[in-house]
């Protein structure tokens, strides 16, 4: 394996963006569960996110969702976040909750609906100017439920035209990242169902358009690290939405279902030049904490990414290359296994302490009294959640 000290020397490059909506109430399609202390405003979401960064040193930026996080003064919101020690990151658009988008948004055959969706994205770009955000992330619920319901090729053409207008409005330092999803809520076909469709659309747009890879948005058995490798190879991987799945888009804590998969993904990220602050690849969480407490859930998530990144940094790439060239299958696989099965938790605790962070962030959060305080302070008002 690589020297542990050398590997951990690169951990300082790790930055994970947390989503504002992870701190609100969430649940299943049957029930959304309320919990004490849930934020009622975007400012309270930012305060919770700042606590995660304070205890882990891993989450310096917070992604916003528009209109869920809509405010009158985004410059003031940026200043407020800075006062908490965090920045505002990706701006996520929303064209999946209004009645007008029942049959599609950017792909709709209704010109008025399509115009409304485009204007929403142009508004998001204006918000980016005020917040200093770099990325506009687009996920579309667009698709059909039945064969013959709509013209699939026509929808792709309309999507391309809509994206071109949005792309043209980007600033010089801004990017568009197009997410894809295998299925849901459209069940016959989804307009952006896979990385190939997202790649084709962003390639046509230009050098400021990239693919967003959500780790829960694939068919069972998909080799996600292969997609990571390919998009890095093509220079089109813009960002991740990290989560875990057992069945579909479960949005569980990253690394919970298959930590070995997360390790393999991070190996490809590091190998392909996607790791580090200047890599151009944003590592973001996209999770819904249905049963677990929100802040500890986010702490656990960023620690899982850190742990698997540390293990991936331990891969002895020289030994791996030698075994691969020699056709030694078992030796090559052993290099992976040796790194993955290394318990890096004790040295990560030491690494955190050396930087003035608590050795055990989850224990530190429990001891801080923060949850008790927000439970008492955040009484009344409307708790944030899906759609708020």
From TrEMBL:
<protein>
    <submittedName>
        <fullName>L-rhamnose isomerase/sugar isomerase</fullName>
        <ecNumber>5.3.1.-</ecNumber>
        <ecNumber>5.3.1.14</ecNumber>
    </submittedName>
</protein>
<keyword id="KW-0413">Isomerase</keyword>
């Amino acid at each position: 394996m690589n020297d542990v000290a050398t590997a951990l020397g690169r951990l300082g490059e790790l930055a994970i963006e947390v989503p504002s909506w992870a701190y609100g109430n969430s649940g299943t399609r049957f029930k959304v569960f309320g919990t004490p202390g849930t934020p009622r405003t975007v400012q309270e979401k930012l305060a919770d996110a700042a606590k995660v960064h304070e205890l882990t040193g891993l989450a310096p930026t917070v992604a916003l969702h528009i209109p869920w996080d809509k405010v009158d003064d985004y410059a003031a919101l940026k200043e407020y976040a800075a006062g908490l020690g965090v920045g505002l990151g990706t701006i996520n658009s929303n064209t999946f909750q209004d009645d007008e988008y029942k049959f599609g948004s950017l792909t709709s055959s209704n010109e008025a609906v399509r115009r409304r969706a485009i204007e929403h994205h142009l508004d998001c770009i204006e918000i980016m100017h005020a917040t200093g955000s770099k990325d506009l992330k687009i996920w579309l619920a667009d698709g059909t439920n039945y064969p013959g319901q709509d013209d699939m090729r026509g929808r792709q053409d309309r999507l391309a035209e809509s994206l071109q207008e949005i792309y043209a409005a980007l600033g010089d330092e801004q990017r568009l990242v197009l997410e894809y999803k295998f299925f849901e809520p459209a069940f016959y076909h989804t307009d952006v169902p896979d990385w190939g469709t997202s790649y084709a659309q962003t390639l046509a747009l230009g050098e400021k358009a990239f693919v967003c890879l959500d780790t829960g948005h694939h068919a069972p058995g998909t080799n996600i690290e292969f997609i990571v490798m390919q998009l890095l190879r093509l220079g089109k991987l813009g960002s991740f939405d990290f989560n875990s799945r057992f069945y579909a888009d479960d949005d569980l804590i990253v690394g919970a279902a298959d930590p070995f998969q997360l390790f393999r993904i991070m190996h490809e990220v590091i190998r392909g030049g996607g790791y580090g602050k200047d890599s151009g690849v944003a590592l973001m969480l996209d999770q819904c904490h249905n049963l677990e407490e929100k802040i500890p859930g986010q702490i656990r998530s960023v620690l899982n990414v850190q742990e698997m990144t540390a293990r991936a940094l331990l891969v002895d790439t020289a030994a791996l290359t030698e075994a691969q060239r020699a056709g030694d299958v078992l030796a090559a696989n052993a290099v992976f296994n040796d790194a993955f099965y290394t318990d890096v938790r004790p040295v990560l605790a030491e690494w955190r302490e050396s930087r003035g962070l608590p050795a055990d962030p989850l224990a530190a959060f429990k001891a801080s009294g923060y949850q008790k305080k927000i439970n008492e302070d955040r009484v009344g008002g409307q708790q944030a959640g899906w759609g708020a």
